[in-house]
Every structure is written in C-alpha cells, then in structure tokens.
Amino acid sequence: MLQEMETAHGHTTHEVFNQVPPLVNYNIFEQDPTLVESVQREGAAWVTDHAAALGRVAGSEEAISWSFDANTVTPVLHTFDRTGQRIDEVTFHPAWHNLMRTSINAGAHALSWREERTGRHVARAAVFYVSSQMEGGHCCPISMTHAVVSVLRGLPHLAATWEPLLTSLVYEPGLRPLQEKQGILCGMGMTEKQGGSDVRTNTTQAVPCSSEGENVYLLTGHKWFCSAPMCDMFLVLAQAPRGLTCFLLPRILPDGTRNRFLIQRLKDKLGNRSNASSEVEFDQTWAVRVGEEGRGVRTIIDMVNFTRLDCVIGSAAGMRQAVVAAVHHAAHRKAFGRLLIEQPLMQNVLADLTIESEAATLLAMRLARAGDRADDDEHEALMRRIGTAVGKYWVAKRGPAHAAEALECLGAMAMLRKASCHAFTGKLHSIRSGRDRATSTVWMSYALCRRNRRRRKRSWLR
C-alpha cells in the first residue's frame, strides 16, 4: 500500500485531498449574469460578443499568470543610462506589457470615443470591468488615457494631434517622437507635497515662453504623486500668471529630444504594485496650456470625473472577483462533513457578498449610461455629476471590507501569497486585494466630499 501511494502521489507521508482546484479558464464576462443583463438593459447589447471574447482571455490561465508575475516583479526606475545620461525611464516585467496590450487591443481605453453607437460609454465600462478583473494595476494608465480625450475634444487644435494616437488600438511602449508611434498613453499630475487633494495650494510655477508661441510655458516645481510615469503625455496643474492652469506636458518634445521630466523615485506602495507611481520634478519643463489661465480645475475636471467613474467600475469588478473566488472555494472545500457552500452560515455570508457585488455592478453600469445621455438630458447630467462622486466614494470605500469578508471564506489559505494566488486566480491574494481596494478608496475621497458639499450649498441657495 505504501508503495502504491508513493507511485500515485509522489510522496509517502500522506495523500493530498480536499484541496480547491485552481479557478482558471473561465469567461469573466459570460459567467457574470448581472453584467451581461446590465449591458443589454443600458443600451449596449452590441458589445456582448466583443466583451465575451475579452472575458475568455482575461479568465485564461495565461492571463492569470500575467497578473501574478506583474505584481511579483514590480517596476524598476532607471534614472541614468550606463554613460551617465539622464533618461528617467521605468521598466516593467513582460507580463505588464501583455496585460496592457490585451486591454488596449480590446479598446478598454478608447471604445467610448471610437464608437458612435448608442451605449458607447456603457460598452466601454463593461470592457474596463473585465480588464480590471484580469489585473487592476494596469487599468490606471488605461483609465487616464480614456479620460483625457474628454478634455482634448474641447480644444480641436490639440485633439487633432493627440486623439488619433490616444484612441489607437495599438499598444506601443517606449519613449519616442509622436511621428514614430502608432499609439500613446496619457497620465495625470495634480497633487503636491503641501496640498494633496487641495490642488489650489500648488506651488509649481508656469512661466510663458513667448518665443515659442502664446500657449507654450516652462514649468518649475514638483508632483508628489504622478502615476504611470512612462506615459507619453500628462495633464498637469501649475500656477500661471493668472492662477492655477492646466497644461499638456509631453515626455518627448516636438524636436525629438526629452523633456525635463525628472523622476525622483517610485512609490513603495501597499497596493497597486504592478503599476509605477512616482514623484517627479519639473525644471524649466516644456508644456502647452490647455484651456484658459486660472481655470485649471474647471479644465481638468472632466478627466477627473471619468477616472472617478473608473474607480466605481474597478471597485465593482474587484467585488465581483471576490465573490467568484469565495464561491469557487466554498463549492470545492469540505468542512465538518459538508461542502462549505452547504453550510448555512457560509450561505449567509456568500449571499451578502453577492448582493453587495451585484449592487455595485448595477450602479457602475447605470452611471455609465448617464454618461451616454448627459448631453441631452438634464436629469442624466445631474446623475453623472453627483452620482459618480457619491458612487465613487461609497463603492470604493466598501471595497476593502468586502474583500476582507471574502478572504475569510478561504480561511488560512487566504493569508498565503502563492497559495491564495491559485485560489484567487492570481489576482485577489490577501495583500493585493484589500490594499488595491483601499487605493481606490483614498484617491480624491476628501476632495469629493468637499466638492459635493459646495454643490449642495449652491443648490439650497437656488
């Protein structure tokens, strides 16, 4: 008997049983009935086949390994090259590039702008929702690249140059002149050391450079949080002569040389680790004014609002991911004579997790519909403006607690990075899940509360 066990199982001390098989090779879109129904109800049924194709890839064993690798081998900053020349570049594990390429090929960053069909924002939200479950960190530059187009479309002279590359379905990493690239990415830089979300206290100075045109400025100062520093362009805020102003800052200048975008260090973050977040300094850095001087917040707010919606979508996706992992574990693991999913108390917990997850998904898709209809419907415009802020605050805030409850369904296995990688499909292990959700929670939350308080006061005065 001992010899038979050794032959069958590879060791002689015991037989391994009652372990949960890896959750791999499933369709993230098709097996989410709430998402499928929401897409149809909110007017984007035409994206179903496209989202299902992405869902198949995102739930594959290969994509799951990308997720794990991208968060294990984190980004590395290279300030100088081997000859001592300043380069300010960040390198990533190949898995990161696979994730980015998959999401960009699917239009997670551009579907809203490439399509003219009804429900285009809902369609893009569904694709982003699926990409977020494939891996959350890479969705940061995806989100910012999508959001910036809303600002540029108000400035045709800038949109003509930048939008075709921002909405391209080609992922082309690396810093090169625009004419040598088929697709580009955009980042954002607003906060500084002394102010955080209170961007009106920013001290970065923007001095007009009249010799290069009336819209060209040179920026001197810093940004305390600049996510995805390898993007090709950034929208940033700086103090111009007439006040806080929005600027478009490229990494590569029109003449092909590198802009003075000086990366000081990468943040050592608790979550969102696959994505690089940096501290940068500007030293006579070339930038183009976007909008009027002194109207920086008003100019950039459209971009901010779209990224807030993505916080709702991404947090809802994280909740769905937690439910899938918890249910999968409970359906395969036995305790006290029965499968966990047959235990009444576990059924209560899973039901609570599922209800909150479905509510978050419904809200995310409803807010995306408001984006589709806001231009022609005052009610939808109000829903988009206030609902997005409230939804971002609440869904993102509930994310860490929801993840913690889901982790408890796995017991001690949830505390092991590698083991929980398999149980949670490489995306929801104990450290990354809660802390990634917390990252969405703290981003701009205080500013949201302040801004909505001002809006309520104005509505009461009217």
Any descriptors?
two-stranded antiparallel sheet, Butyryl-CoA Dehydrogenase, subunit A, domain 2, 3 domains, seven-stranded mixed β-sheet, 11 strands, 462 residues, Butyryl-CoA Dehydrogenase, subunit A, domain 3, alpha+beta, 15 helices
Q: What do you see in this structure?
A:
50% of the residues lie in helices and 15% in strands. It is built from 15 helices and eleven strands. Strands 3, 4, 5, 6, 7, 8 and 9 form a seven-stranded mixed β-sheet that branches. It has a two-stranded antiparallel ribbon with strand order 1-2. The chain has a two-stranded antiparallel ribbon with strand order 10-11. Helix 7 crosses helix 10, helix 8 (139-152) runs antiparallel to helix 10 (296-332) and helix 11 (344-373) runs antiparallel to helix 12.
Strand coverage percent: 15-25%
Instruction: Describe the sheet with the most strands.
Output: 7 strands, mixed
Can you identify the CATH superfamily of the largest domain?
Butyryl-CoA Dehydrogenase, subunit A, domain 3
What is the rounded distance between the termini? 85 Å
C-alpha Rg, in Å? 23 Å
The sequence of SSEs as H and E is HHHHEEHHHHHEEEEEEEHEEHHHHH
Please identify the structural class as seen in this structure.
alpha+beta
Tally of separate domains: 3
Per DSSP, the total helix count is 15
- CATH class wording of the largest domain: Mainly Alpha
Helix content: 40-55%
Q: What's the β-strand tally?
A: 11
In the CATH classification, which architecture of the largest domain applies? Answer: Up-down Bundle
What sort of overall outline do the alpha carbons produce when their principal axes are compared? globular
At the fold tier of CATH, the topology name of the largest domain is Butyryl-CoA Dehydrogenase, subunit A, domain 3
